[in-house]
Amino acid sequence: MSKQKIYFPNLNGLRFIAAFLVIIHHIEQFKSIYKYENYWGSVPFIGIIGKLGVVLFFVLSGFLITYLLLAEEQSFKNISIGRFYVRRILRIWPLYFLIILLAFFVLPNIDLFILPNFGKDVIYSNLLLKLFLYAIFFPNLALSLLGIVPYASHTWSIGTEEQFYLVWPVLIKWVKKYRLGLMFFIIIFYLGFLFFMKTQYFEIIPYKKLIKTFWYTFNIDCMAIGGIFAILQFQQSSLLKLLKNKLLFYFTIVFALLLMVKGVYIPYFHYEFYSVIFGIIILNFATNNEIKISLENKYFNYLGNISYGLYMYHPIGIILALFICSYINYLTNWFIYPLSFAFTILLAGLSYKYFESFFLKFKGKFSNVISGNSTY
Q: What's the pTM value of the predicted model, to 2 decimals?
């Protein structure tokens, strides 16, 4: 049986925008670590965009993975969980483990990459436990419980994605009739447990610190919100008449930009609120032919294709840029920002071409439904 190919336009561009937000956030953070002039802690926009960039990644993952699984089931009457896992391994694991090896065993031995107050004594404390947690894809626990490991701690979100990938195809495969209900149940359960953790009753539960640490970084509710938009699109729900609306789309874009520029934090439902906004934007960018904004060009497509590398390598790129700017005594944002992005794009591009592509070429053997969005 021939393979089905699915392509949603503009999503590569959105992936780059998500990585772009994270990189800006970390440029200011690294500047503050080196005590260079910075906006860390003083500009609300800088404070919220890092996690919101990651949340955008989460909603994109929820949307695309859910849709691709539904398409596989429709075309082939089955969802192959094993093949799904192999595809995720080929995409995620090689670069993930390369970054972990660099962060623990290479970069701490190069003076240029040793951050103030983060020498080997910090990195190698509880080394075996840290390595174990990173190896089993719980970097979110390693970060929260054991502290920062420069050049590796940002992989907490990769751990969250892997935890999501572990359960998602199983849920989609075995819950057939009430998938929208499943998405809402996941969101309500996640938020309900967050509320429960703030009550006195949670204090009597064993391993409460471990559970709390994991739950705060799991964020499966954001991915479920992406899943809702995927199911609505796949089922051609009547709600699409409301959601796929160019005026709603333009309003949502402007509204999202204003909220982020102002650094607006939404009490209780911060990430869920932004996830819904991102879901509307993703749905329209991917499926609404009436919108006039397009991210479909060779530059955004390329940057979206290497967005995983942009995310993984950007701390190295930033440090290289700060080193050069410091060396020539030209510590201005007009130089720091372009140089940070240039180094990051260079590293990610080389990695994609000469390292990641070796593994990606095997993905097709395990794919019944091929996504034109090559990250997936």
A: 0.95
